[in-house]
Amino acid sequence: MITPAMVLSAILFVVGTFGVLVRRNAIIMFLCIELQLNAVNLAFVALSRIWGIEGQVFVFFVMTVAAAEAAVGLAIIISIFRHYETVNVDNFNLLKW
Amino acid sequence: MHATLSMLLTQGGGHEAAGGGTFEPFFPGLVVLLPLVGFAVNGVLALRHAKASAAAVRAGGELELDGPSGRPATHTLPSFVGPGVILLAFLLTLVNFTRMLGAGLEEPAVVHYWTWMATSTFSVAAAVQLDPLSLVMMMVVTGVGFLIHVFSVGYMKDDPGYPRYFAYLNLFVFFMLVLVMGSSYGLMFVGWEGVGLCSYLLIGYWFSDKEKADAGKKAFIVNRIGDFGFLVAMFLLFVTFRTLDFVPVFRDAPETLAYGGGLVTAITLFFFLGATGKSAQIPLYIWLPDAMAGPTPVSALIHAATMVTAGVYMVARSSLLFALSPVGSATVATVGVLTALLAATIALRQNDIKKVLAYSTVSQLGYMFVGVGVGAYAAGIFHLMTHAFFKALLFLGSGAVIHSMHHALHHTHSHADAQDMRNMGGLKQFMPITWVVMWIATLAIAGVWPFAGFFSKDEIIWQIAAFGGAEHAPYPGLYTFIWVLALITAMLTAFYMTRLMVMTFHGTNRTGAHEARHLHEAPPVMWVPLAVLAVLSVFGGWVNVPAAIQESFLGGMGALPMSEWLHHFFEPVTATAHEIQLANLGEVAHHAPFGGGEVAWAVVSTVLALAIVLASTRIVGGWTVKPAAEDAEPVGFAKVLYHKWYVDELYDAVIVQPLLKVSRFSWKVVDAGIVDGSVNAVGYLARGLGWFGSLFQTGTVNTYAFILSLGVLVILGAVIF
User: Fold this and answer.
1) B167-178: per-residue pLDDT in tens?
2) How far is residue B710's CA from residue A52's CA, in Å, rounded to a whole number?
3) Any chain B CB within 8 A of the CB of A50?
4) Across-strand partners of B126?
5) Segment 692-721 of chain B within 8 Å of chain A by CB
6) Which residues contact A73 (CB under 8 A, 6 or more apart)?
7) Domains detected in chain A
8) pTM of the shown model
9) Which of B230, B175, B147 is nearest to B525 (CA)?
């Protein structure tokens, strides 16, 4: 039962990672990050069958942090959209040398 | 400070003497202090004048010395303060001198004021030492110094820097007194450096003229080379004796240092290197002729009468060490006579009146070194004293001539050289007093009986012969050689001095008719010191008439009052050195290398000198001298002498240019290339690395995410595998 869950978790994580790396739309990248987090959550839950309740407890923490992050991240994206009228991250490259 | 002052004003304790009464030093600290006070007062006046002058220039004008309200106090007070403090110092010295005459002094009287430097192993006391040697030097410094100060009042009165001039001059006398009165080599070195500083300041007194400022620098730099020798000698003395005070050093030296040993030879040679710098001997004499850029009274005081004789004083003071080192003494004598001859040959063809006197000074200093180099320390100091009289007189006389020439040329706005003898001629009708006193000095320096120079120079020449003929004399052939060269130099001296006199005062006047009307005799404030020095140049030699000469017809069959007085006066200082000499070399000879005794050779030398003076008045009088502007360059050997044997050029090629090249190499290649280069390379490296690192900072979120992921993969890979 654990192995399929772990495989699913790995697939979800890789999908999320590729999404972050290849997509340019900030909202999509954001969703992909959530996907990665939830892939990890899945792994936590699955593994808690072997190692005990701590994995499940940890999932709550991850979800809380993800909610907070979503609030801040979405606020930033909205504010960027108001400024540039786009959410394509290729346009946001001022933070460099 | 108060305690210090009150200590300076105390008399100092009495010193027991073996024979006769007790010598009581009379305010010796005040003798040193007075010129320093003069320096302070004149220095303040100089600063005030500088401020007033600067304010006038800022206001768009120039400070007029002779304004409607008369001369400012800054230009009248120094006339009294400058010579006044020296006169007081001279009177105090005179009291000390007469007291010492009354007392037979065996041990030097050391008056201790305070401890200047003290560490556990090394201590230098601020103390003065009074003994015959230092007292004679003090008499010369303050006595001749006072006369030159008075002369300066007339000579410099229209110079804008008048107070500054007297401040420097007073400071010089202060340091010179520290030099001759200090009771240790440490204090002597303080004075030694101090007079060098004053010499630099006064040579470059007219510092807005670059040539003159350069001459000051040259003197300072050349002197530094000599000072290095003095320092090393002091270090050697200190590691040997653990003290620099004269009394313990000279007490222990005969036991501690082996006769002719390597250590004492090294000490004496290093001391002599110091002396060659200060006293202008080969190879460091080149600064003295250039030092003539200073005001003429300065040339008289510093570069003829006192400072340049410091080396002779130092050798005489260290007589014991030099007596212990035959190599050191022979070096002193040889270098001395070679310098005397070289400088005399150069003086033959110089046209600048002060340059002739400068080379003459170098030459006479050479004589003094020969004297102290053959163990005749009293004779060396004797010549130092008489030379101070007649050379100061010659320089001041030339100063009077230059002063008059300068006024005459100034009136007609002529740009001819006021110091070039080719522009003078026939000045005796305009300046009869100067003419007479200059002739007296010329006869004195030429060694004509009975002038001062005859007795002192003749004694040195005789002592060379006597020393070279001693039973166990080292290198006897060398001393015969020195003796012959000294005689030749004496004849050259007679010639070039007569040439100077004839070109300046005799023949037709070459200044030009307009200028001649403005030529005038020096004012009394200038010619009175000349007259005093002239009297000293005549009678100054009579204090040390050798017994043999005194009893012969040259001494008026015993009519001259004192016999070898100076010689006996110096005995407490030189006795030990003479004992060492007697023990190791045996009795000195009583006949010259080619036969003949003291009197015979004295007659020969004075007759020769007089004959050369008379002959050269005829010879030089027969020359047709053209004014400097029309005169052609000399040719042949005369050209070599005119260009001073090209020694300056030689030094330039051998020392200055290679030094410049090495410096330039160190600057361009070592410093700018290697040192700066490596530092800059580190900077460039950091910048390059930064540039490379900045390539990763694209600002694109995806790149960062990609690199982040890559990093995670690498770390994971590392952890797992």
Assistant:
1) 999 999 999 999
2) 32
3) no
4) B114
5) 694, 697-702, 705-706, 709
6) A30
7) 2-88 (1.10.287.3510)
8) 0.82
9) B147
